[in-house]
């Protein structure tokens, strides 16, 4: 998230098992390089920024934002192998996007459109971050399974199952979209003003990179009661490594003076994720013991349609791109 980056200093994070050191340059853009000096493999994030370079704290070598060594204080010559990987970065929608593959194949046009998160005089967005001690695929499966809220989140995000539920799932290019319509469900606490029962429409869109955007519309099941509850939010799921996950959340609301404070919504979202989703997903992570879901021959329910389509899309993308993959080290 943009808000995590210091104006002056190095920000370190692991992506896909690779340590990355990031820093703001003089022009305000963010540079990202591998967090490992090629000399004695010291973490560059333990060093300091000098202008648009990082200086290694161990022996003083300096590297620019392209990973090129620009200063060798131990001789007049910079060895030809004194360089490190750099990663293209784009800052957009209050988030920092990094491409971990071949820099020549980075395509900023493929960054998902999350314009609805953009801050303005009329809209407020709050971001949250959790370092999750479970795998990213387990988290994505949870986020695209819209049915689990009726059981795991009763009394917080949900009031319970409705009298009728309809689920549609389809693909739009490389994206997977799910629409869940729920009729006459007990009203969750967040929308109590709509009466005891509500009709809801949940629209979810997953895009490659594990970027998920949601919109929820709830209206009273009683025609005599007017009003509606609208919610928009996003989840971005990024593997730190095979076992751990960076989990970014964003909730956004218009500033119309009528809705509850967005700070309360964001705090409630983080609390529910930590106290309700977290323990369950950690238990699933331990039960799966590093194995891929489909290798365990799981029972498949109609509610798993989005998860299965996402796996199909990922398999297709891997096959399409496999000829051009480069190692991360």
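^ Assign residues to that structure.
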């Amino acid at each position: 998230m943009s808000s995590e980056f210091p104006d002056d200093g190095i920000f370190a994070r692991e992506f896909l098992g690779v340590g990355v050191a990031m820093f703001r340059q003089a022009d305000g853009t963010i540079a990202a390089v591998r967090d490992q000096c090629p000399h004695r493999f010291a973490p560059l994030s333990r060093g300091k920024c000098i202008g648009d370079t990082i200086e290694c704290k161990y022996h003083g070598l300096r590297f620019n934002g392209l990973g090129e060594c620009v200063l060798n204080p131990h001789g007049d010559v910079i060895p030809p192998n004194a360089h490190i990987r750099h990663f293209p970065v784009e800052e957009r929608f209050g988030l920092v996007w990094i491409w971990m593959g071949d820099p020549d194949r980075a395509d900023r046009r493929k960054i998902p459109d999350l314009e609805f998160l953009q801050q303005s005089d009329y809209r407020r967005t709050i971001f949250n971050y959790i370092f999750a001690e479970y795998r990213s695929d387990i988290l994505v499966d949870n986020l695209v399974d819209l049915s689990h809220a009726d059981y795991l989140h009763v009394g917080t995000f949900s009031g319970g199952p409705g009298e009728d539920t309809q689920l549609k799932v389809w693909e739009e290019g490389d994206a997977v979209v799910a629409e869940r319509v729920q009729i006459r469900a007990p009203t969750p606490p967040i929308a109590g003003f709509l009466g005891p029962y509500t009709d809801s429409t949940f629209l979810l869109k997953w895009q490659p990179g594990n970027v998920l955007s949601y919109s929820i519309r709830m209206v009273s099941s009683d025609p005599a009661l007017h009003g509606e509850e609208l919610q928009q939010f996003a989840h971005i799921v990024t593997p730190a490594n095979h076992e751990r996950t960076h989990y970014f959340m964003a909730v956004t609301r218009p500033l119309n003076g009528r809705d509850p404070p967005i700070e309360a919504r964001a705090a409630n979202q983080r609390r529910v994720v930590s106290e309700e989703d977290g323990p369950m997903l950690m238990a699933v992570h331990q039960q799966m013991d590093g194995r891929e879901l489909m290798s365990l021959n799981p029972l498949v329910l109609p509610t798993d349609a989005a998860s299965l389509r996402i796996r199909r899309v990922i398999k297709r993308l891997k096959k399409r791109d496999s000829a051009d993959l480069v190692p991360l080290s």
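The chain has a mean pLDDT of 92.
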